[in-house]
Design goal:
Number of helices: 13
Order of helices and strands: HEHEHEHEHEHEEHEHEHEEHHHH
Number of strands: 11
Structural class: alpha/beta
Strand order of the largest sheet: 1-9-8-6-5-4-3-2
Radius of gyration: 18 Å
Strand content: 5-15%
């Protein structure tokens, strides 16, 4: 199976990360991915520290392999969750939606590897200077909060700009995407949308079915006006939000409209009022299968492709 420097750095068998998806990536899913040889990640989203601690303990009941916690730095609970991660001494912290510099010393003292998500070369360089162990270069094909650059152009530029390992993310759902990412200079991949179909993923059956039925033009981007663009499935909620966004609604009205929308999708499967986050790779997700099988399938396909091209030396 494919190995790279990130495997040795983190003590994992396969350079496949599971994305930190708010309300979705819990301790059960993270443990399943880590047991399968990848790096499972618990998402904190806007949850308080107590919830995150519970999920860390849940993951530890299910695996003794390394796993991580994703901290959304815009969350009102970011400081609290950062402290929980340090106290629990999780193996890895990934971060999104901001600059984690103020937490770096605290995490370093706890022995945590910090791997921020970046959407630009400038942020990647800054994260290297502040002590990040690696970075996740995430293109705009991904689900949830997105940047401007596509994965194809972001990954090689980040790989050229920093000397720490680079993980590619955004639009990757199979071995072809992983092989391409490695050729672009990454040493591993992060997938979110693909793991929505994992058997251990506890999202609403409606959510899973919408992913399995997705087509190539299944997603859209909202929130640009507020400066926080988000990619999600084309649903009545997403269309109404876009209509309001450019139809005269105030920022406060848009914030109110979006509040709780993700939870309504994940927990309730509410197509009318829920925000179903998904990346452009949703159309490539065809079946529900165990998380460990997803990790193995993607890595084995990538290995065959690269060996066939004479590009990967084991």
């Amino acid at each position: 199976m494919i190995r790279s420097q990130i495997c040795d750095l983190l003590g994992i068998r396969c350079p496949v990360f599971q994305g930190g998806m708010a309300w979705i990536a819990d301790g059960k899913l993270a443990a399943a991915v880590s047991e399968g040889g990848g790096l499972g990640i618990i998402a904190s989203g806007n949850a308080p520290g107590g919830y995150v601690r519970e999920q860390i303990h849940e993951a530890r009941k299910r695996t003794n392999k390394p796993f991580g916690v994703n901290i959304m730095l815009m969350s009102p609970y970011a400081d609290e969750v950062a402290e929980v991660a340090a106290e629990e001494k999780v193996a890895v912290v990934t971060t999104g939606a901001g600059n984690p510099s103020r937490f770096m010393k605290q995490w370093e003292e706890a022995g945590i590897k910090v791997i921020p998500v970046v959407a630009s070369v400038a942020l990647a360089r800054l994260m290297q200077r502040t002590g990040a162990s690696a970075v996740i270069a995430e293109g705009g094909e991904s689900g949830g909060h997105i940047g401007d650059l596509s994965t194809m152009v972001l990954v090689p530029q980040v790989a050229d700009a920093v000397s720490i390992p680079v993980i590619a993310a955004g639009g990757i759902a199979d071995g072809r995407g992983m092989a391409a990412s490695l050729m672009l200079g990454a040493c591993g991949v992060q997938m979110g949308t693909r793991f929505l179909s994992a058997a251990e993923c506890t999202i609403s059956p409606v959510y899973k079915q919408k992913i399995l039925q997705a087509g190539d033009l299944c997603t859209m981007v909202t929130g640009k006006r507020l400066g926080h663009p988000v990619r999600s499935l084309r649903t009545p909620f997403a269309r109404e939000y876009l209509k309001q966004e450019y139809g005269g609604a105030s920022d406060e009205e848009l914030e109110k409209l979006g509040t709780g929308a993700l939870r309504r999708a994940v927990v309730d499967g509410d197509v009318k009022n829920g925000c179903f986050l998904a990346g452009q790779s949703a159309a490539m997700v065809k079946k529900i299968q165990p998380a460990a099988e997803i990790v193995r399938e993607v890595a084995e396909e990538a290995e065959k492709i690269l060996q066939g091209a004479g590009a990967w030396i084991m």
